[in-house]
Amino acid sequence: MTLNFKEYSSLNELDLSISEHIVQALQMALDEKGVASLVVSGGNSPRNFLSNLSEQDIDWSSVYVTLADERCVLDVHPDSNARMVKEHLIQNLAADINFVPLYIQGESQMNCQQRFINHRVLSDTYDVVILGMGLDGHTASIFPQAVERDQALNIDTMLNVLLTNPITVTPLRLTQTRKRLLNTKNLMLHMMGPEKRSVYEQAAKELNPEMPISYFIHQDIVPLSVYYSEAS
Q1: CA angle, 102 as apex, 99 and 106 as ends, to 5°?
Q2: Quick one: CATH architecture of 3-229?
Q3: pLDDT tens for residues 41-60?
Q4: Quick check: bond before 171 cis, omega within 30?
Q5: What pTM, to 2 d.p., does this model score?
C-alpha cells in the first residue's frame, strides 16, 4: 500500500488544502482530455471544502460530479447527499457543473449500473474520488454489518453500484463498489477528530472486514492520500 498522510492544525487549513489538490487534479484532467470527473462522499464533513471548491476558477462546465454513495431518499430530503452537493458545491463559480445523481426514485439497481456504464465520462477511470469514514469504519455506504458488505468489497465483482442495507442505520443506500471507487487516478480520504484517527489507525494495522475502510488502505491499485485535522 502507498499512503500519504497529511495533517493540519485547523479545519480551515485542511479544507483549503484538499480543495487545492482536488482543483489541481481536475485541471490536469481538463488539460489532458477536456473533461474531468469527481466523486464525493456525503455527510456533514465535506461541506466546507465543497463550498471552497465552488469558488475556484476552473471550467466547471466540463466537470462531472457524482456521489460515492446515496441514501434512497428524494433530493429534497434533509439527509440526501445530492441535496448537500447542490447546496454546497453547485453554486458560485461551480454553478454549471454537471451533476449525475446516484439515486433516482423508481430506478432499479440494474438501470443505475447501466446508466453509469454508458455515461460518456463517468464510465471511464475517475479523476478524483473523495472518501469519508464513519466511526464504525464504514466508507461510502459499505457498512460492517451489511449483508452486501463482502460483495461491495470484492475486487472481482462485476458490479459498479450496489443497493445495500446498512442494518445499523436507515434508510437503504446505493453505494459504488470498492472496485469502482479504486478505479481512479486520485484517491483521497477526508477525516477529522481524534476519534476518527483512532479508527483509521486501527484499520491501518490489517485488513478487517469489520472495518471496510481497511480495504481502501490495504491495496496497491491507487495511492491513498489522507487529509486529517485533529480539530472537528
Answers
A1: 120
A2: 3-Layer(aba) Sandwich (3.40)
A3: 998 899 999 999 999 999 99
A4: yes
A5: 0.98
